[in-house]
Specification:
It is built from 9 helices and 9 strands. By secondary structure, it is α/β, with parallel strands linked by helices. The protein has 2 domains: 167 residues, 3-Layer(aba) Sandwich (Rossmann fold), CATH 3.40.50; 113 residues, 2-Layer Sandwich (GMP Synthetase, Chain A, domain 3). The strands form 2 sheets. A 6-stranded mixed β-sheet has the order 2-3-1-4-5-6, sandwiched between helices. Strands 7-8-9 form a 3-stranded mixed β-sheet. A hairpin with a 2-residue loop joins strand 2 and strand 3. The longest helix is centred in the last third of the chain and has 18 residues.
Length: 305
């Protein structure tokens, strides 16, 4: 056992929707712990991914993308995002290189000035392969004039470029202290929620623009079987009867495809055979039900005006 002290701390990833926060988290962890789609606002909970960097344990908080909230769920998500930033030891603001200093990024910077406190804030410019070098350097200068970032990183979360440098820097930034989780643990989400998020991702990808924010998935039952497999029963809640037909698809082909894709991914993640059973229920007011927010790890009160 080395005498080198251990370090541990929370890293908040913040940014606009689709900035690549979930992709970066999954790359850092080396496994899929956060939902990744091309839709905005897909991350509803503050998912913690646990990464070992030498003697440092980095606990990543993947906050919901920051946007202008309209509904109760939106407001609760944004409140959770800023709560994650306020509680973190280090904050990383992610922006998309090709979008540059958008109005949304400007608004986030203004909020950062109020919420970052004493936490060091780094800038990660993502998707660098989409922009020429001269434009990247100009964007970095513009961002650092707008906010005193302690460090700037040029990365491609999808391809992994620059991610090792960011992870190494974060390993030095977190405070000395005991590890917060077992060394081999990669996330602090319950498996039931990871399973529900996996199915919701497949629904979002399959349904495109039809229903992405009109549904939620809950794991109703999880049964470990003697043969080493597990049975997972999930409920897909939709707002209206018409939504039920969309999720089912023609002759049930949509729900079958979603179930198969989710089951395959869960079997890879759990390294065991999975029996997945999906049921669709119409629940018109689920967006206003306190229980649904608790399932997603959000505070119902945060959705109040």
């Amino acid at each position: 056992m080395t005498d080198q002290p251990t370090k541990a701390g929370f890293i908040a990833l913040i940014g606009e929707p689709n900035a690549g926060k979930s992709t970066l988290l999954n790359h850092m962890v080396g496994a899929k712990v956060s939902i990744v789609t091309h839709k905005v606002q897909t991350t509803r909970t503050r998912i913690r991914g646990v990464v070992m960097e030498g003697r440092s344990q980095l606990v990543f908080v993947d906050t919901p993308g920051l946007f202008k909230p309209k509904r109760r769920l939106d407001r609760a998500m944004v409140k959770a995002a800023w709560g994650g930033a306020a509680d973190a030891d280090v904050v990383v603001l992610m922006i998309e290189a090709h979008r540059g200093m958008s109005e949304g990024v400007k608004a986030i910077i203004e909020r950062l000035k109020e919420h970052a406190g004493n936490s060091p804030v780094a800038l990660a410019i993502n998707k660098i392969d989409k922009v020429k070098t001269e434009k990247l350097l100009g964007l970095a200068d513009e961002m650092n004039e707008a906010y005193p970032f302690v460090q700037t990183f040029m990365i491609s979360a999808e391809r992994g470029h620059g991610c090792d440098a960011l992870r190494g820097w974060l390993g030095h930034q977190v405070p000395d202290g005991p590890w917060l989780y077992p060394e081999d643990q990669i996330a602090d989400l319950p498996l039931r929620m990871i399973a529900a998020e996996t199915t919701r991702e497949k629904l979002t990808l399959r349904l495109h623009q039809e229903l992405p924010y009109q549904l939620t998935v809950e794991t109703e039952n999880w049964e470990d079987r003697k043969d080493g497999s597990c049975r997972i029963d999930q409920i897909i809640y939709v707002m209206r009867d018409g939504h039920k037909g969309i999720v089912l698809g023609n002759k049930g082909e949509t729900i079958k495809a979603v179930s198969t894709a989710a089951r395959i991914e869960l079997e890879e993640f759990l390294d065991r055979r999975v029996h997945l059973f999906l049921q669709i229920k119409v629940r018109p007011g689920w967006l206003e039900e306190k229980e649904r927010y608790s399932e997603m790890g959000l505070d119902f009160k945060d959705g109040n005006v």
